[in-house]
Amino acid sequence: MANRVIIVGGGGGGAILANLLQPHGFDVTVIDKSTSHFFQPGNLWIAFKGVSPEKFLRPIPSLLKKGVNYVNDEVVSVDLNERRVTTRSGRSYEYDFVVLASGAELDYSAVPGHRELLERFGDFYSSPENSLKLWNTLRGLKEGSFVIGVADPIYKCPPGPHKGAFLASELLRSRGLAGKVKVVLAVPVPHAYPSKTVADILEPELKERGVEIHTFFTVNEVDNRENRLVSLEGEDIKFNVAVVVPPHRGPSYNISPAEVKDQSSYVKIDKYTSNVQGFDDAYAIGDCTNAPTSKSGVTAHLQAEVVAARLLGYDARYSGRTNCPIITDGKGTFVISDYDHPPIKVRLSRFKRLMEDLFVATYWSAVKYPEFWSPIFKAYFDATDEFIRRGEGW
Amino acid sequence: MPEITVDARGMACPGPISALTRAYRNAQNGDIIIVLATDPGFKPDVQAWIEKTRNELVSLTEEGGVIKAVIKVTAKK
Question: Which of A26, A98, A155, A354, by CA, is between 20 and 30 Å from A185?
């Protein structure tokens, strides 16, 4: 009998893994409570460029190869000892291997006033619907300040708030509001970006566009009556419109034994193999894990390849490689690092912006046909890994 | 008084200061937070954090490559 693989989550990591395994005779089932897969960076385009959400949405089954089973149901528990996944509808699935790829969960109730803020303005972070709401909110903003804040140092897509600030300033400039609406970026860390090396590249660019930067500002409360964000560190910022990246946590479904989750509910894994700690037949990939690397699509993608290779019998390991794109209004750069090397200095260029735009254009194909795209990505990663090892950029 | 130890050894910048921020969120005035870090950037970062938050830096020492910051929480509202 073919090995039964249950994948919890049909986002980038889960779908790529399913499509890598299916041709090799595995009995693969993807379970997701959603019927749609949305390309998360697309939220920025919806919120700041008015692009239609449909462009970034696909039905999950359309992204899975023929032969992959898809179940539209919500997972409520995973029993690692009994090798069983149970869903909201009461169904139970036994497996030979399980892979948790359900992403991080966003907690809008952790910060007082945050949910109300989201309902007032939308955001560019959580969903296409909320991004569309922000696009409509920003249409009505003619003066004052647009503030982007962060409520916890650990969040997915570390450059997300910065991309938002660049695209917001571009949007306001295009509407002739550059001197009338101020863009403010507030971050929990000591520099404009978590990595000092990357902050040194971004900060002059942000300042050049008039973006006001607040460091050591961890949003702790949203005062919707006074329209101000209050930080854990004791500062406050007034806003006309604000977006706050919420605290994140790991999966809310039960996993037994409970010890495989950390204090924030992230699944504890071996950072190289993606094995859930203590289980050689269970893996977790992407944003739902406690791996000490960026919560980003590239991590989910590379971990999916590692898990696929391991299930095929190879001793593959994930290096912790990141390649997170940062875009300004015309240029791009990447946050390139791995477990053993901090981010290197990668200069902004129009070419790297083109690379990012090309990647966006190929995303759906890369998810469905990873066997075609992986060698191309691998060639790029191999070439740039040399730069990481030498501690220099390109 | 409660003592919270944050072991951020092996974490690269800004891991230690991020770990401190997360511990600070759950702390109360009077608590002691001890942060252990190996990233050299932690020293100036924690000094800047103290200046910003107006908490008390009881001591900042380094021994065998491990930086130890002892912080008394005094400024939480």
Answer: A354
**Residue carrying the six token digits 């039964």:** A4
Residue A65 pLDDT: 97
Give the amino acid at A5. V
> What is the CATH architecture assignment of A4-104+250-321?
3-Layer(bba) Sandwich (3.50)
Whether B75 has a pLDDT exceeding 90, the answer reads yes
Q: Are A124 and A242 contacting, i.e. CB atoms less than 8 angstroms apart? A: no
Where are the domains positioned within chain B? 3-72
Q: Which CATH superfamily is domain A107-247 in?
A: FAD/NAD(P)-binding domain (3.50.50.60)
Give the residue with greater pLDDT, B2 vs A365. Answer: A365
Q: Does domain B3-72 bear CATH number 2.130.10.10?
A: no
pLDDT of residue B10: 87
Task: Give the integer Cα–Cα distance in Å for A306 and A296.
Answer: 16
**pLDDT tier at A157 (50, 70, 90 boundaries)?**
very high
B:2-61 residues touching chain A, CB 8 A cutoff: 11-15, 17-18, 21-22, 24-25, 41, 44-45, 48-49, 52-54
At A119 the pLDDT is 98
SS3 annotation, A348-394? CEHHHHHHHHHHHHHHHHHHHCHHHHHHHHHHHHHHHHHHHHHCCCC
So where are chain A's domains? 4-104+250-321, 107-247
The yes-or-no verdict on residue B17 having pLDDT over 80 is yes
B-chain CB neighbours of A220 within 8 Å are 25
Question: Which of A152, A190, A232 lies closest to B45 in CB terms?
Answer: A190
Torsion of CA B61, B67, B73, B77, to 10 degrees: 130
pLDDT value of residue B71: 97
Selecting among B10, B12, B13, B30, the annotated active-site residue is: B13
A219 has which bridge partners? A231
Domains A4-104+250-321 and A107-247 share a fold: yes
> CA A212: distance to chain centroid?
25
Q: How confident is the model at residue B14 (pLDDT cuts 50, 70, 90)?
A: confident
